[in-house]
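Chapter summary example.
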Amino acid sequence: MLNLDFYKNIKEELADGPTQLVAVSKTKPAAAIQALYEQGQRIFGENKVQELVDKAALLPQDIQWHLIGHLQRNKVKYIAPFVSLIHAVDSLRLLKEINKEAKKNNRIISCLLQFHIAQEDSKFGLDLAEAKALLQSEDYAQMQHIKIVGLMGMASFTDNQEQVLAEFGQLANYFQELKAAFFAQNDDFKELSMGMSGDYQLALQEGSTLVRIGSALFGHR
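The structure predicted for these 221 residues follows.
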């Protein structure tokens, strides 16, 4: 059930700042996405490649589709023709595959480096040393069909707000460090994707520019 009151409230909350809403529509039918589209929403996030491909074929062409879930290299080719932003780049090998498929489609695909900031081992992501090694690599230097525009991370699933705030703060610090070291002259490196339905307000405190909201908008799955 679409929560239009929440949608209007969060759009109002974000109206004066740099933060954009990514409406996380995974498992939700195309009709629910269309209904939110008709309210003015244009950025939608999906976790699974096949679901994203199927929905993109059914829905308006001006939707900006974000792939926010873990991405397997063998599935990059299916979204390379149209995806707007890939949030979860967690290895050089994946980035090389995205670059290869983007080249085939004569595109430059925007990507975020995913960091592991949570306590749970089940979550994917780089640490700071791995990210620096990637950005310093010869392979990365030669890539002409990807553009790294920021970082993404997921906080621990916990009621401890101080911990969540600290994890978001850590990601914000990583962003500033990498910006200074590798992207100081690059205005495209500006995105910090963090915060979901339960913790997005904490993420906003730490400078999130993309909040990924699903259940608060579409109801629980």
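To summarize the output: The first strand starts at residue 20 and ends at 24.
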